[in-house]
Each structure stands twice: as C-alpha cells, then as structure tokens.
Design a protein that fits this description.
Elements: E1 7-10, H1 13-23, E2 28-35, E3 45-53, E4 59-64, H2 77-81, E5 86-89, H3 92-103, E6 110-112, H4 113-119, H5 127-135, H6 155-166, H7 168-181, H8 185-196, H9 221-241, H10 245-248, H11 251-260, H12 265-272, H13 276-295, H14 314-334, H15 338-341, H16 344-353, H17 358-362, H18 369-387
Parallel strand pairs: 1-4, 2-5, 5-6
Antiparallel strand pairs: 2-3, 3-4
C-alpha cells in the first residue's frame, strides 16, 4: 500500500471539528488510543489516533490530544456511534473500555483485526506482526511503555503512534477476505459485538479486589485477611503518589507477605526480597497493615464458583481435562489457537453443568451462539461419553 498522506496533529476543538467534517462521509474509521496506565494511579486516555478511509480509498490521518486545554472530545462521538461506519481497532477491548470511561462514547459496528486474525488462524497476530507481514514495515517497540500523558510529545513518538492506525483499513480488508474463505464471518461478527458491550469496572473501593489476584483464593483465611490489608496499603500509597500500584509492590511480593505473615522488619525483608526504599520509608506502615490483617474479623469476599456456585469437584476436573483434549484436537483440525475454539472458562462451566443435549449446551453461561451452532452436539456427546451414558439420555 502506498500512502504518503501526512497526519494532522489536533490540539484544539476547532481543528477536531474541521477534521470530523472532512471525514464524515467516510465508511471506515480506524482508531487506537494511548494511555498512561504504566505511569499513573488514575488512568486516562492520553492520545487518540485516527485513520479514516473514504469510499474512493483516500486516507485521512489525525492524532488527537485529549489532554489539551479545552478540547471537546465529543466531536468524535457521532461518527463512533454511526452504524454505517465500520470502526476498526486492533485489540479493541482496552480502547473501547477506556474511551467509554473517559468520554462516555457509544461505539458501534466495531471490527477488531486481532479477533479476525485469530479466527483466520494467523499465528502471529500482534499489530506489529501484521504490519510487518503485510507491508514490510517495522513498528518501533521503543515507545510501547512510553508515558503518553507527559507533554510535550516528541515527533518520533507521534510518528510511532500514528502507525497504529495507518494500516488498519487495509489489514481489515485482507483479514475479511481470509475469514470469509474459511466460513468464519459469524465468529468475528459475534465477538466484535461482544466487544462493543464491554464497560469499565472501577477498582473495588473497599479494597476487596485483592481476591481476584492469581493465587489469592487458595490462601488460608488468615492469609487472605493479611493480603487484603497489604493490598489496601498499596492502594493508599499508590493513590497518594499517583503511581500505578505495581510500581509500589508486585502481586507476588504481596502474596509472599500473606503466606509468611512477617512480624518484624527482618522477616518482612526476607518475605519480599528487594524494595529497600519502600521498607525504609513505609516498613512500619506495612507491618501495621499485616498486624491489622491478623486480628481482622471482617468478612472475606468469595470468588465466583464455576457451575452456578457449586464447588468444582475432582470429577468435574477430570471432565474439564477431557473437554480440553477435545478442544485442542478441534483447534488443530481448524488450524487455530485452542482458545479460539473455546476458552477454558466455558469448558469449566460445561464440566460443572454436564449438559447432555445441544439445547442444554446452549444454556451454559458464556457460550457463544457461533459455538453452539458449530459444537453443541459434539460437546453434549463428549459429556455423555465421559459419563458413559447415551447421548441425550
């Protein structure tokens, strides 16, 4: 693809309004965002990249600074909500959720090229891989962890950000053709509609979000109470410093504290290894948090159980492994990743509920309609075979 059109840097509402009028008849709008989540406690969209394609193939590029004084980001809203416009993202979940959170957008007719690439069986489906494979252009990884809320933004960083949408319309075309040839349009359609429904979920204000940390739900109750207080300590400190929580202390360090429950500075040092500056400045506060957890009687949150709240049994686990083996064989046949056929969470729900008919499979939480059409009968048969009863019995 040859495209020498420059991008426009937009920092004023009048310029954004003029750009939107220029592209209002374009049927395709590619969008990407950059945020400051690696650098601040309160995350915000810090840059919005746009590439619009007119019906004649002409491309219009812009980068919008949503942090500029007085800029009205609502001028972009009508086009994102227009069902006649295909809104192209790559890995849309984060962008859609972030833009809804910060600007209140309604976003319709999403086409996610990452979803399409995975459905097409593309093994390396990152944007850099697709741009490199299709166009021979190397995207610079230097700015993947850049602080996009910092101003001014260098020209090199802006050039990097612009490339995140420059090629998306044509990538969409290429992937649509491949997906159609495989008869998987319905997969991509349904998954993209689900992305449109994603919403932002705020951090739990009571500090109970710790229970979603990997490994937290398997800790003894006393360790969970310690972990909760350490988590709350980290959140308070991160908010005060306006740092992302992981820069204060990583999850594994917090889990080690919860497991060992250190009572003094030396034991605390052994539990978390490094973090010398944190221990020097806030060691006593952290020890107080541990002590609070040890005597706490506050009710613990309970993670959601698979299978509608029933405890996942050993036999459920055996059936899950049986279903996973089926899923992996199916993925090999279709030449896609196993998770494209069905993710582990859906398989766990099936294992817990043990549907023996296609109609029962359809009622399993999280199952997609396209999965029902393709696999419901086979899944019911796999459950029945595992239980050694006739299918449908």
């Amino acid at each position: 693809m040859t495209d020498d059109a420059p991008y426009q840097m937009i920092e004023q509402s009048a310029d954004l309004e003029h750009f939107m009028k220029r592209i209002q008849s374009c049927p395709v709008l590619a969008v990407d965002t950059e945020a400051n989540s690696l650098h601040n406690y309160v995350e915000k969209v810090s840059l919005v990249q746009l590439t619009a394609r007119a019906a004649d193939g002409t491309l219009h590029h812009a980068i919008v600074d949503p942090l500029a004084d007085g800029i009205d980001m609502q001028k972009l809203a009508p086009m994102l909500a227009d069902p006649a416009v295909v809104v192209v993202f790559h890995g849309a979940d984060y962008d859609v959720v972030s833009m809804k959170r910060d600007f209140g957008y309604a976003i319709t007719n999403v086409y996610d090229t990452m979803i399409a690439a995975r459905a097409a069986g593309v093994q390396r489906f990152g944007l850099a891989d697709l741009v490199g494979g299709y166009f021979g252009v190397t995207l610079n990884k230097k700015y993947q962890k850049h602080d996009w809320a910092s101003r001014p933004i260098s020209q090199e960083a802006l050039d990097y950000a612009h490339l995140d949408t420059r090629y998306l319309p044509e990538i969409m075309d290429l992937l649509r053709e491949k997906v159609a040839s495989l008869g998987r349009e319905d997969m991509v359609e349904e998954e993209c509609r689900l992305v449109e429904d994603r919403t932002w979920v705020a951090r739990a204000p009571d500090g109970n979000a710790f229970i979603s940390m990997k490994g937290a739900s398997r800790l003894p109750e006393k360790s969970q109470r310690v972990l909760r207080e350490v988590y709350r300590f980290r959140e308070r400190l991160a908010a005060a410093r306006d740092w992302p929580p992981f820069k204060i202390m990583g999850n594994e360090a917090m889990l080690n504290i919860a497991r060992t429950m250190p009572a003094d500075a030396r034991a605390l040092q052994q539990a978390i290894g490094g973090h010398a500056r944190l221990l020097q400045r806030h060691g006593p506060e952290l020890l107080d948090a541990i002590a609070t957890g040890l005597v706490s009687e506050e009710e613990l949150p309970r993670p959601e159980k698979k299978g509608g709240g029933r405890r996942f049994s050993r036999e459920d686990d055996l059936l899950f492994n049986h279903l996973r083996e089926w899923r992996n064989r199916q993925a090999a046949t279709e030449q896609v990743e196993p998770a494209v056929v069905m993710n582990n969470q859906a398989l766990q729900e099936i294992a817990a509920r043990r549907p023996l008919t296609a109609e029962a499979v359809e009622q399993v939480p999280g199952i997609r309609r396209w999965q029902v059409r393709r696999y419901a009968g086979e899944l019911a048969g796999q459950v029945a075979a595992f239980q050694d009863v006739p299918a449908g019995g």
